[in-house]
Amino acid sequence: MDVAGRVVLITGASSGVGAALAEKLAAVGARVVVNYSRSEGAANAVVSRISEVGGQALAIQADVSEEADCKRLVSATIEHFGQLDSLVNNAGTTTFVPHDQLDALTEDIWLRTLRVNLIGAFMMSREAAPHIEAVGGGEIIMTSSIASMTANGSSIAYCASKAGMNSLTRTLAKTLGKKKIRVNAVLPGLIDGDWAFNTWGGGDAEQYDGLKKMFSDQTPLGHVVTPEDVADSILALITGSDYVTGQLVTIDSGFTL
Question: What is the value of pTM for the model shown?
Fold first, then answer.
């Protein structure tokens, strides 16, 4: 599919995978909405980089865990660009809680994790679907995680939220298929970048390098994926066949094999 002129809304796009995807889409002619929750400066920087090379992008603040914000985000997209062709549910959150510390996984952590990662993805999809149908169909893509399958991750709540996102991907694919809306998910492993450095690596370069080596040594391809790698996979789903739907695409250099 040629994406030139099409409008793609990316949640959680001020950094990481979302930012990389926004720039890649703009480079091939798409018009991009860069959603952010708190990082206004970073989101505006993404828009500036796109504008500097002749692309079209708009930053919009919204917290996808809030239904009213989801409605406002989609409405603002339509008001500015006049259409919506694709949605990428990339916004996510987590709180690090060791899996064996059950009492530390509070109700507040559970609810925040589910509202952003799972319920937010549903509410955004629900708001976007009629507009995507109105342009003759398009894509909804979820950024899930291999934590949904491996039972390893930053918390039990995070693993469960991403497993729920996988199920949401397949049920929405079945539900929205007749409207020519394809729904797929990407499942990255460890993503090399600032977030992993500051969280998994604790901001310590030596510790983080050791973590990356341990991870890459366990992958057949010997590589820790980057935000650009994941963005390339999402871009391939958007620009590729119109007959791929309900799929969970793992991007982890073979770590889970």
Answer: 0.96
